[in-house]
């Protein structure tokens, strides 16, 4: 039965990681035109950082190779902002340029669809594992 629990652990860690990814993508899209933040300057695109973590580093080979995903943090994109000439904008500099975040909405949409599909795949793994566990319990009766 531990194998079922390992499967649940791997898939649920994937769900959590993809939820973080979906949240950061939504934040990026919502702030694509944000020219001023509390820190000063335009919004910076956020990127979640994932890392594999072994389920059981002391188990057999399969246990050692089985990993869950861990979100180690969220970093800010280091690309410089995009400058556009708009002297009427309240955040324009002395030369009339406004700094906007370097966020490609189409790229974010592709990331959003990919994250949604990965989330759905992990949810399907949990559902299939639950069904197999219930079938196994039914056989044991």
**Main pleated-sheet profile:** 2 strands, antiparallel
Q: In total, how many domains does the architecture comprise?
A: 1
The strand line-up of the biggest sheet is 1-2
What's the helix count? 3
Question: What integer value in Å does the Rg equal?
Answer: 22 Å
- The succession of helices and strands, N to C, reads HEHEEEH
Number of E-type strands: 4
Structural class: alpha+beta
Query: Span between N and C termini?
Result: 16 Å
Approximately how much beta-strand content do the residues carry? 15-25%
Describe the structure.
With 141 residues, the chain is an alpha+beta fold. The protein has one domain (2-136). It is 49% helix and 19% strand. The chain is built from three helices and four strands. The protein has helices spanning 2-30, 61-65, 105-139, and strands at residues 46-54, 67-76, 82-85, 97-100. It has a two-stranded antiparallel ribbon. The chain has a two-stranded antiparallel ribbon with strand order 3-4. Helix 1 (2-30) packs antiparallel against helix 3 (105-139). It is elongated.
Q: What does the secondary structure layout of this molecule look like, with pairings?
A:
Blueprint: H1 2-30, E1 46-54, H2 61-65, E2 67-76, E3 82-85, E4 97-100, H3 105-139
Antiparallel strand pairs: 1-2, 3-4
